[in-house]
């Protein structure tokens, strides 16, 4: 069975999560993870964003102490918002350069760089939750913005493509393939994740499976994602946070229902 060693998508109370950074790390250690990333929403998220980008640097300062206390690697990243149709994101370069992981995702609660695009692009997407017609109508624009963000920024992966804001997954996977950017299977939300896996397989794009946890009990909770990977026969080689070529012995160390295993992996994102 495919095993993961890391959860690279969690939210602390610095954005819209309920947890302190320490609670995230403690929960990840309890799950038997070797690595966890705290990836709060970018500052332009309406009601969900971090107060200011400089708080990521504050989180960075806490990471080493927490890693030592819980004997687990702690990464600090951001789930950036795409804030223009040209692919701009809401993390300044000087902060992005300090992060271990940079994610970008489309969210229909965001202040764009220009107020006009908030009205003409984001608002119709927000209303699209009530209208299939609007959702479809915005697909091409969403695809253009996300693809531009993939080309413009050095992203580790894109979060939940196709959730809340419809995109052409084939086009997005092609951009990811060009740029060496992975695509996420988000275990914390229900959307058409089979389609994401199929597009990634077609274009040879790496996948990552994460919890998107906002509460302690969800950290490392990726069971739904793992079932989808198994169903689509995805090889561990194509999953960035999966163990590669682990000996069968390690399975004995994993607890029931836990997809992670010991000992610590040497893989590290920079
Ligand atoms: Zn998100
Ligand atoms: Zn998230």
Automatic annotation (TrEMBL):
Top-level taxon in the UniProt lineage: Bacteria
Gene Ontology annotations for the cellular component aspect, listed alphabetically: cytosol
InterPro entries recorded: PHP_dom, PHP_phosphatase, Pol/His_phosphatase_N, Pol/histidinol_Pase-like
Domain annotation Polymerase/histidinol phosphatase N-terminal: ranges: 6-84
Protein name in UniProt: Putative hydrolase
Key word Membrane present: no
PANTHER family, per database record: PHOSPHATASE YCDX-RELATED
GO molecular function, one term: zinc ion binding
Assigned keywords, A-Z: Hydrolase
Species of provenance: Desulfotruncus arcticus DSM 17038
Keyword Glycoprotein: no
Database matches in Pfam families: PHP, PHP_C
């Amino acid at each position: 069975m495919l095993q993961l060693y890391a959860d690279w998508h969690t939210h602390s109370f610095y954005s819209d999560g309920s947890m302190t950074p320490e609670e995230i790390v403690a929960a990840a250690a309890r799950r038997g993870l070797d690595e966890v990333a705290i990836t709060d929403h970018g500052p332009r998220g309406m009601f969900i964003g971090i107060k200011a980008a400089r708080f990521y640097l504050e989180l960075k300062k806490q990471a080493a102490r927490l890693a030592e206390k819980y004997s687990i690697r702690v990464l600090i990243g951001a789930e950036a918002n795409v804030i223009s149709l040209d692919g701009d994101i809401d993390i300044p370069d000087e902060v992005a350069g300090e992060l271990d992981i940079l994610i970008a995702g489309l969210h229909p609660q965001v202040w764009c760089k220009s107020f006009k695009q908030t009205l003409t692009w984001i608002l119709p997407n927000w209303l699209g939750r009530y209208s299939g017609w609007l959702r479809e109508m915005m697909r091409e624009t969403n695809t253009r913005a996300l693809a531009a963000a993939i080309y413009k920024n050095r992203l580790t992966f894109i979060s939940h493509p196709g959730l809340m804001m419809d995109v052409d997954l084939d086009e997005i996977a092609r951009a990811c393939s060009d740029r060496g950017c992975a695509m996420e299977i988000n275990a914390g939300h229900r959307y058409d994740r089979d389609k994401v896996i199929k597009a990634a397989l077609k274009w040879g794009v790496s996948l990552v499976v994460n919890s998107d946890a906002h509460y302690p009990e969800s950290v490392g909770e990726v069971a739904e994602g793992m079932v989808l990977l198994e169903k689509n026969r995805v090889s561990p080689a194509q999953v960035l946070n999966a163990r590669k070529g682990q000996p069968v012995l390690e399975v004995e160390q994993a607890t029931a229902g836990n997809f992670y295993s010991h000992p610590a992996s040497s893989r590290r994102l920079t």
